[in-house]
Amino acid sequence: GIQVEQSPPDLILQEGANSTLRCNFSDSVNNLQWFHQNPWGQLINLFYIPSGTKQNGRLSATTVATERYSLLYISSSQTTDSGVYFCAVGDTDKLIFGTGTRLQVFP
Amino acid sequence: ETGVTQTPRHLVMGMTNKKSLKCEQHLGHNAMYWYKQSAKKPLELMFVYSLEERVENNSVPSRFSPECPNSSHLFLHLHTLQPEDSALYLCASSQNTQGSGSQETQYFGPGTRLLVL
Known about the structure:
The complex is a heterodimer. Chain A is mostly beta strands. Chain A contains no helices and eleven strands.
């Protein structure tokens, strides 16, 4: 099956800093989503982005499907951005999740 | 986020107990999912229901029994669980496009944190 790798596994930032999270996947996919899991366990969908670039406020994402990777950019980070960021890719009828990037933003 | 709700939010049970987790989606979606999230592991898909029919179960042990009575409700019945089943159980829903092999955006509930003693 498809393998999903995320990097870095852990990231510590000071408020205001920018960061880039990466997701590599091992095969062609027709679905790629980024999620944020807050410290209370709630998973929130950030982007549905099987290809191209999207932006939503301080967050943006780019997927280069032909090269099998996606990037999530966080600009001017805030303490509320803390949590775990997951990339998930679509394989027929299911999503396969990566192991996540744990982000901690300190004031 | 109130589109997908889950009850209870926390559950402690003994290995001989029987309990059920409930999920309800208010988004008009046609597919619902159960995921298990254990410490230090990626989310694992347990069950997928599309149009109320199970399409995926990923070889989950029979001590987990799903039920989908309609497109808005999903249950996970638990019996004779083991301590290693302690985890966060997440429900999700999506609107899937028939025949495309593709899923649309998944929306997650807040989860049920389960502890098996």
